[in-house]
Backbone:
């Protein structure tokens, strides 16, 4: 299985995201060739380091490649999908994009600030293990299978489209926010300057383009990114995001900057996050029915337990649209102040 993977001559180009053209192509090809030679000749690695067992365990638990492969396999056939060449290729694409995410200056500063005394790649593994990266991807993939209409698709097509959506979300470039500066000159004239601030954590749902990105692509990528467990975490929008768009996958709170005159419009705004298997619903289901992942989709199991555990019988509404769980509210209260999604 490993030999077949590395014998694929297209591995370099498939693994590396085709959207990346930053001069790293040659270095990446050398890296893949070195990995291929190492697989064929393990003795070339030399003496085993003292922490080999610990590092291998971390890599197996939280390495981007293993995490992506397990998440895809649980929705593409279980254990048998782990050895499927097509599924492994798509997991490699996701791992590459995750690697690029950890390559960003903000992430590097964050992780290096937590531990300066070990190699950065090892810090990534520890951070991913502590943060439950596997659980993050298991949940995300489960949500995407249904939102992308892949429930009845073949495993190969499902893996490919899941990888397309995940890499699109993780590829979102830095956005730019404009801030105006007002200054009165010595002559009494008002001078207005504009400063542009780079941001990953919050974004405006508008037609303005971001760095290295065409305006026509931005809204689609922004929706994919906001509907993921990764940044941006706050979305600012006008009435353009009021209806017809789903933001419930990883958002459960709407803050209104103003109130519309029509109550139907208010309901439409809140309806962007109160939807099928929304974030708040999943949080309550997981709080009540947390299960070990095993080889199957853990979220499918949890929702089945929540559905079958109803004392008053089966319902199409509970637990998919509403689920209080443990006596807690299904969703946090909607705050009637500034208009953002978080």
Residues:
């Amino acid at each position: 299985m490993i030999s077949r993977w590395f014998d694929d001559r297209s591995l370099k180009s498939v693994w590396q995201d085709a959207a990346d053209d930053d001069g790293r192509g040659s270095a990446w090809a050398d890296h893949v060739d070195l990995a291929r030679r190492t697989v064929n000749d393990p003795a070339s690695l030399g003496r085993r380091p003292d922490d080999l067992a610990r590092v291998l365990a971390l890599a197996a638990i939280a390495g981007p490649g293993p995490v992506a492969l397990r998440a895809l396999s649980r929705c593409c056939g279980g254990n048998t999908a782990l050895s499927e060449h097509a599924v492994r290729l798509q997991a490699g694409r996701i791992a590459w994009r995750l690697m690029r995410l950890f390559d960003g200056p903000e992430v590097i500063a964050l992780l290096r600030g937590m531990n300066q005394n070990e190699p950065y790649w090892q810090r990534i593994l520890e951070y991913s293990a502590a943060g439950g990266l596997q659980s993050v991807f298991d949940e995300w993939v489960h949500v995407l299978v249904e939102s992308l209409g892949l429930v009845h698709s073949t495993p190969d097509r499902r893996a490919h489209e899941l990888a397309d959506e995940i890499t699109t979300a993780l590829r979102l470039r830095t956005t730019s926010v404009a801030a105006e500066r007002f200054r009165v000159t010595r002559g009494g004239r008002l001078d207005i300057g504009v400063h542009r601030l780079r941001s990953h954590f919050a974004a405006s749902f508008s037609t303005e383009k971001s760095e290295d990105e065409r305006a026509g692509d931005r809204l689609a990528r922004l929706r994919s990114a906001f509907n993921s467990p990764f940044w941006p975490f706050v979305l600012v929008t006008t009435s353009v995001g009021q209806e017809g768009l789903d933001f419930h996958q990883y958002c459960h709170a709407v803050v209104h900057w103003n109130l519309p005159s029509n109550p139907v419009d208010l309901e439409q705004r809140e309806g962007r996050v109160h939807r099928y298997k929304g974030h708040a619903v999943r949080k309550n289901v997981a709080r009540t029915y947390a299960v070990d992942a095993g080889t199957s989709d853990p979220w499918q199991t949890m929702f089945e337990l929540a559905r079958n555990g109803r004392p008053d019988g089966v319902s199409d509404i509970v637990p998919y649209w509403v689920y209080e769980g443990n006596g807690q509210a299904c969703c946090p209260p909607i705050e009637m102040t500034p208009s953002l999604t978080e």
